[in-house]
Amino acid sequence: MKSTEINNEYIKLVVQDAEIYLKDYKVTLEKAANSNAIYKGKPVPFLYHPMFFTEEDVDNFRKIGDMMISIANKVINRYIEDGSFRKKFGFSNLLEELILLDNGYDINVPIGRFDVFYKDYEDFKFCELNTDGSSAMNEDNTLGRILLETKAMKQFRQKYKLSLFELFDKWVKDSIDIYRKYDSSNSKPNVAIIDFTESGTSKEFEEFKSAYIRSGYNCIIADPRDLSYRDGKLYFDDYRIDLVYRRMVTFELIERAEEIQDFIQAYKNEAMCTIGSIRSQVVHNKIIFKVLHDEDTLKFLSQEEREFIKKHVPYTELFKGDKGVFNEVLNNKDKYIMKPLDLNGSRGVFVGRDFSKDEWRKRLKEVWDKDYIYQEFIEPCTRKFVAFEDNKTFVEEFGTIIGLFIYNERLAGLYTRVGKSNIISGLTEYYTLPNILVNERK
User: Fold this and answer.
1) For 330-339, 407-416, 418-427, which range has the lowest pLDDT when averaged over its residues?
2) Taking all residues of the chain, what is their mean pLDDT, rounded to a whole number?
3) CB atoms closer than 10 angstroms to residue 51
4) Residue 75, pLDDT score
5) Which domain holds residue 255?
6) Which CATH number do you get for residue 192?
7) Please, are residues 267 and 214 in contact by the beta-carbon 8 Å criterion?
8) Angle (nearest 5°) at CA 413 between 312 and 213
9) Of 223, 374, 284, which is closest to residue 95 (Cα–Cα)?
10) What is the pLDDT of residues 99-146, one digit of tens each?
11) Checking CA distances to 431, which of 157, 227, 386, 414 falls within 20 to 30 Å?
């Protein structure tokens, strides 16, 4: 049983009774609009069609995640141990200082979302590695619960067992397990979810806060500018913070360091357990894909890891230096995608295929020698989905990108966006699809 076969079966189900399911889709839209599936103040766009996966797919995702975690650990450990290796990354003095600090629990990447273009285990490519600030758990779980209650899914589950990948209680358990490596004597740490108010995804933070409280832990949501470091501890007013779930992305932490000196000093003095620690930035920054292909990096990896990188990590180089680099990218625009080294949400990303030669030249001049990479453009894997528009039913092909949520170095769940643009992100026309694990009923 392949997920594509299940997908086609669902399409057939909906198309056969399109009028019934179109009415139900409108009801579902209303439910989603009144839910907490909100991104940047607007309801998350979705289809009346989830992303179906089988146990075989999940096993593949586990293997992909395990391999990349193994590689990430070796690269981060080399960064910590080898000053010459650190120069590859070009990080600021403050960022390097924070990365080198002991995080108190010996896990380099406690949380991440590794985005891939996936067809099967032999045919997939990485898009990017998100570590600090990894998000969108709420989109998947909230929309998943809503779609499982649709008429089509109720009909579909007569034949199949359908389940979601729960991402909130799971994170609470994993983060507390990590905290116990930091301090095994405190059985009930006070938790704080930390991000700049204007940058955070408040609905998602509330879900995580509820999950911590549900499990018996105190939890607050706080802006790092409102914290104070005193008597060797970090506080929000009189609330002592033992465990920080860091949603503040590293580039903002560094850019706004002067505004959050108490947080930084507390971090330097290991006054609290911070999950994730700043060292995860080594693989979060997009320069990691260039570093992975460097010969001196490949030398300290296993043969299997080297082959994995060459096959599944797109070719990446810095867009600076010799003018030959500029001309290579200019003259081969359909081969490349341009990305800033460290912005989130696809900001600043652009693709050669979307521009004329003159427009491409202009855009390249704007970012030349300005902390950009050029990367091999990967065609997204496609899948057919049912879509409703203007009271009509369509079966359309969309490009897909799959996020692998990694908690405590293990696969925890999935996140899917689909779209028709060369960039599938929140900045372009896209849909979020909840991920459903399908098993046959016996």
Assistant:
1) 418-427
2) 95
3) 24
4) 98
5) 169-283
6) 3.40.50.1760
7) no
8) 145
9) 284
10) 999 999 999 999 999 999 999 999 999 999 999 888 889 999 999 999
11) 157
How many angstroms separate the CA atoms of 14 and 155, rounded?
10
Give me the CATH number covering residue 358. 3.30.1490
What is the pTM for the complete model shown?
A: 0.95
Structure tokens at 348: 């600043």
When pLDDT is averaged across residues 30-44 and rounded to a whole number, the result is 86
What Rg value do the Cα atoms of the chain yield, rounded? 22
Amino acid found at 349? V
Predicted local distance difference test score (pLDDT) of residue 370: 92
Residue that finishes a domain, picked among 361, 377, 393: 377
**Spatial separation of the C-alpha atoms in residues 86 and 75, rounded to whole Å:** 10
Say whether both 190 and 267 belong to one domain: yes
Residue at 371 is within a domain = yes
Total domains, the chain: 2
What phi, psi does 92 have (nearest 5°)? -65, 165
Q: Is 267 a member of any domain?
A: yes
d(CA 282, CA 255) in angstroms, rounded, equals: 17
pLDDT in tens, 254-265: 999 999 999 999
- Based on the domain organization, do 176 and 274 belong to the same domain? yes
Residues 267 and 362 in one domain: no
H helices of 160-275, where? 169-182, 202-214, 250-255, 261-268
Residues 6+ apart with CB under 8 A from 24: 48, 150, 151, 152
pLDDT tens digits, one per residue of 227-241: 999 999 999 999 999
